[in-house]
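Re: Re: ligand-bound prediction request (bumping)

Still looking for help on this. To restate: I need the protein modeled with zinc ion bound, output as structure tokens. Inputs repeated here so nobody has to scroll up.
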Amino acid sequence: MNMRLLLTHRRALVAAIVLFISTLGTSASAQVGGGNRRVVAQAESYTGDTFNYSTETPRGAHVITRVRPRPEWLRAVDDGLTDLFAVARKHGYRSHLNYADYTIFIAKPDRTRDSTGAYSPDVAYVAPSYRGSIYDQGGFIYAAGMAFSFDPCALVVAEHDHDFQRMANVVRYEGEHLVLYHNDRRLFQQTADHSKGGGHPILQ
Ligand SMILES: [Zn+2]
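Reply:
Sorry for the wait, this slipped through. Here it is.
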């Protein structure tokens, strides 16, 4: 573990990971309240949270939360996806650019400040593939967000009580992996694992 490098690595501020799940297929019959049982179960196992609330943003993205969702969170999700779809269209991508294609889990942060003291609500994830990388904190990493399901598109972001622009950025950055998976599989493969270098934004 190289703490100093971690702290000075700007990209670590929005460190993010993609977990490759072998059971990416989903059945429409599994749809439950805007999400589905499989992605809810996955999100609960990754975060250790219990998600009790399911709602939609004004633009139609699905949001699943542990506590009653704040209006600022829903706006941040819409803002992040709006930015993501705009840059995706600029690249000629067309697939999965609808708000309703996305399910955003908003989890309890495992820290709210990074080691420099900056506001940084992050979730700790067990991440074996990051062992020895700049993100490694000893078998787990703090990540601002995590994309973990391609169909439906699902990602986790931490609850924020201010700096909702950061929350929007995390949605936008993690959403990049999902947009790339559906539109540019080669670039997706190259950029899916940040432990091998690279960071966000991938799409400019
Ligand atoms: Zn990422």
